[in-house]
Amino acid sequence: MNAVQQFTKGRIHDVACKPLKKFLDERGWLTELFRSDELEPEIMPAMSYVSMTQPGVARGPHEHVEQTDYFCFLGPSNFKVYLWDTREGSPSFGVKQVLYAGVDAPSIVVVPPGVVHAYRNIGTENGIVFNAPNRLFAGQGKSEPVDEIRHEELVDSPYQLD
């Protein structure tokens, strides 16, 4: 990846974003995060985790070589999600896409391998993110290298969060 890569705004091929539906009743609400009958086999989760991100804090940018991330942004805060397509041969190579997700727009964001991604909590409360990637972190028994290329500390990085 050339550090002087320029990105244009647009939609990134293979990135999926869909609203989460809340089912309300007198007890509160429920939302389905994923269903095996709605996912392609290549993105079927192999594990899941939940993270908390404090207001103003960002995670990323980083990318994966083989892993697809299946993020669910529910709240109680809001996030700005940044995506950069670095996949040569992709119809959207060189595109930067920005999404808003969280309590005001509960969303699933599917990020394929080769798409650099980051998110920042833009709210005033701690934010919770659920992820169900299709690969195990550090492989079976945590015995393999982590599939992650980190860009957070690159000098003159083309992956800038505003």
Keywords:
mainly beta, 6-stranded mixed β-sheet, 5-stranded antiparallel β-sheet, 162 residues, Jelly Rolls
Strand content: 35-45%
The CATH homologous superfamily = Jelly Rolls
Q: Tell me, what is the CATH class?
A: Mainly Beta
Q: What structural class do helix, strand and pairing data support?
A: mainly beta
> Biggest sheet, in brief?
6 strands, mixed
Tally of structural domains? 1
Sequence of secondary-structure elements: EEEEEEEEEEEEE
- Low-pLDDT sequence parts: none
Shape: globular
Per CATH, what is the topology?
Answer: Jelly Rolls
Mean pLDDT, all residues = 94
Can you tell me about this structure?
With 162 residues, this protein is mostly beta strands. The protein has one domain: Jelly Rolls. It has strands spanning 8-9, 16-19, 23-25, 28-30, 49-53, 58-63, 69-75, 78-85, 95-102, 107-111, 115-121, 127-131, 149-150. The protein has a six-stranded mixed beta sheet with strand order 1-9-8-11-6-13, with no helix packed on it. Strands 2-10-7-12-5 form a five-stranded antiparallel beta sheet, with no helix packed on it. Strand 3 (23-25) and strand 4 (28-30) form a beta hairpin. The mean pLDDT is 94. This is dTDP-4-dehydrorhamnose 3,5-epimerase. One of its GO terms (molecular function) is dTDP-4-dehydrorhamnose 3,5-epimerase activity. Catalyzes the epimerization of the C3' and C5'positions of dTDP-6-deoxy-D-xylo-4-hexulose, forming dTDP-6-deoxy-L-lyxo-4-hexulose. It catalyses: dTDP-4-dehydro-6-deoxy-alpha-D-glucose = dTDP-4-dehydro-beta-L-rhamnose. It comes from Geomonas paludis.
